[in-house]
Design goal:
4 helices; elongated; mainly alpha; about 0% strand; about 85% helix
Length: about 140
């Protein structure tokens, strides 16, 4: 049961934070204009990356470990989704992050605006998949097989 709770807590915190960024923080950041959004992105990203990566890793490992104890496919699927989100972030989102953090990026450029929009769409994928992992763990905990 402890692995169930660790996975649920980590994945729940991940999904909640990701949804907040997708639905609240990033739209507000963009509404302030590209120059301010770019300036705010760096500090926000550096703080959020550590938290989100840690939660994804803990949730992923706890879900897979729970499965190895014979607790069904839902914890495995949730754990693999969380580990997949780490790979998705490193392979798909990281190039956009690096460009947004590049001091040579002109904050007033069309490229900056496009990068912020792209980042928002990519982060929404993370939010959706994290929420799906949370749903799978919830179904597992209420006994759905």
């Amino acid at each position: 049961m402890l692995l169930d709770l660790v996975a649920l807590l980590a994945v729940g915190l991940f999904a909640g934070a990701a949804l907040y960024v997708t639905l609240v923080e990033h739209p507000a950041r963009r509404q302030c204009g590209a120059a301010l959004a770019i300036a705010e992105f760096g500090p926000s990203y550096r703080r959020g990356a550590v938290m989100q990566a840690s939660l994804a890793a803990v949730g992923g490992l706890a879900g897979v470990a729970d499965w190895t104890r014979g607790h069904g496919a839902f914890p495995l699927a949730a754990g693999l989704l969380m580990m997949g989100l780490i790979a998705f972030t490193l392979i798909v989102i990281l190039p956009t992050n690096k460009r947004l953090l590049d001091p040579a990026l002109d904050p007033g450029s069309a490229e900056a605006t496009a990068l912020l929009a792209r980042w928002g769409r990519l982060h929404a994928v993370r939010s959706g998949l994290g929420t799906l992992a949370l749903l799978l763990l919830g179904l597992h905990l209420v006994g759905v097989r």
